[in-house]
Amino acid sequence: MLSPIPPALRGALQSGLSIAVFFYNGPASRAIAFEGLLNSGDNFVSRLKSAFKDSSAPQLVHVATDGESYGHHHKHGEMALAYTLRMLEEDRTVKLINYSSFLAQFSPEYECEIVEDTSWSCVHGIERWRSNCGCNGGKPGFNQLWRGPLRQALDELRDALVPLTENAGSKLFRDVWAARDAYIAVILDRSHEAVPQFLHEHANHTLSEAEQVDALELMEMQRHAQLMYTSCGWFFDDISGIEPCRSSPMPHA
User: Fold this and answer.
1) How many CA atoms, within 13 angstroms, populate the side-chain half-sphere of residue 4?
2) In what order do the strands lie in the sheet with 111-112?
3) What are the helix and strand counts (H, E) for the chain?
4) What is the pTM of this model?
């Protein structure tokens, strides 16, 4: 009989650093997304609690789902989630906790190996983003042969943007790539105050109005260079569908 997987393991990285790896509850996650578990808050609570084993060892029950499951894909799913969290918070047999708090109390005792070029959403590694791997919506007569040439085109576009970004960015930013990473603050807060603050922190001189426009356009260009690899855009059957044509706030690097 296989021993249960510990709540958290240590994953060694090539850099010499390490990260904590948590293994989510797959069956419960699928039930939330595809099997109507959000139809009942009480069933949701019971399903999560039933995942605990009769053991004195530290245990963590958690799921991994898309945010749009709660209210978009499943009407009133956000209400079921809120009810579940309230019921669990009032339940003295369990304790709501986040990953960092759990790690502060229970450090990983075992190490796991992270297999390179793999993803949670494609059993073929990362082929979903570059080949006709077989992950599709099952529409008769369709395939994903378009993935190969599209991926090549996007990779070439991405690579062509690097020298352009560095050349133009060197005239505007102290470190254009650090600015690119920090631009998430502007994406999350489009207020009038956020943009001047961003430029103040990263521009290499006081930018003119025209330079400010150039700087923001450069950041948006890099933002979309990441969005074009968005996971959902590569899954569906028809390249002319809305999924490959839309952008998402969660790019796949």
Assistant:
1) 17
2) 18-22, 8-12, 111-112
3) 10, 3
4) 0.68
